[in-house]
Amino acid sequence: MSPRAKCAASTRDTMLASARRRFLEESYENVGLRDIARDVGVDVALVGRYFGSKENLFHEVLRGMRCDWLDTDIDAEALPSFLASMVLRQEESEDREDLDRLLIILRSASSPKASELVRTAFREDVIEPVARLLKGADAERRVAVAFSILTGTTVMRTFMGVEPLLACCQQGLEQKLTRLLREALST
Amino acid sequence: MSPRAKCAASTRDTMLASARRRFLEESYENVGLRDIARDVGVDVALVGRYFGSKENLFHEVLRGMRCDWLDTDIDAEALPSFLASMVLRQEESEDREDLDRLLIILRSASSPKASELVRTAFREDVIEPVARLLKGADAERRVAVAFSILTGTTVMRTFMGVEPLLACCQQGLEQKLTRLLREALST
DNA sequence: AGGCTATGTCAACGGCTGTAGACATAAAAA
DNA sequence: TTTTTATGTCTACAGCCGTTGACATAGCCT
Asked: Which of B16, B182, B102, B172 is nearest to A180 (CA)?
């Protein structure tokens, strides 16, 4: 085999992309470095070389998806319906990345090697930024409750495949979810 | 070493108990048969012999915790506060087993080998029984939404270690959760 | 052209995993 | 007492895994 000797940064990015896709669909320990290497068409060793360790690769995947809750300045009023539609409309949607990161976090939530990374990522990149959008006391707690609903819904739909949340009229569901979120975020 | 040659059923039960405890705190692939064997003070091979396969052991753990939502005949009115207190009061509580099973299910929700078992267990032993307690249309969907909230809360507390849901006054949280569940279960 | 560096391959290690079959011994049955 | 059965142990096998170090070659620089 002839080495490719192309741009290293490019193949590194490809690895990251593959890793992101894999971690989206399997938990930390169920994603093999060899899987990622095969995706990219490269030897395992290279993955290890570019990222040092699997744990660090996972870390970079998470870092590379930093969300931008703050850029799109949403006022607290619109937040419930915004969050509801983000979680329910998995297809299309430009906020896809935000949902993806939530999914990656949830997938590996109980993976010993990844759990710490996952916890801090969730706190620093999800809870705290959103809480900053809110006025009033107990902001973090209210956001935490709201995201309990969101992650619960996501877990039910994605991991448990609960039919009633997948099949039928999404619009009614989205309305209900919005209502619940408004209640959760209220003081 | 001298074989114990005691009652086989007893050691089998001990294995099951150990497995239950393990699966409660680690996901399917992070629980080793050797861990369980060590707990019981027995060789790995015996675990394999008594349960055939790890997958089947997991299955039996789940089966052995069949809940009894129906025995304690709860009317739909009291359901929200009942569920809220079940999820929040992890200590004490005689319904501890029910919560435990929910936790085991969630832990291994995205473990390829266990996901199917987990899905059907959740549907058949949680969603459907509770839905049977409800009147009105869309019972399963309403229960699914309610359990989205419950599992979300549990994931946040147990897996993600979200402080605001753990530390502060549980009573306020329980009230809010009850309110959310009532809203979720309403038509 | 000749050397150097970036890019990538290959082989292998140690560790862990679930599973299977052959063997040992305590308890019960004859 | 002798034989059989239940209850466990021991050894070992493939198969993955992440990680490491030694090697190869393509492309750039002088």
From this structure: B182
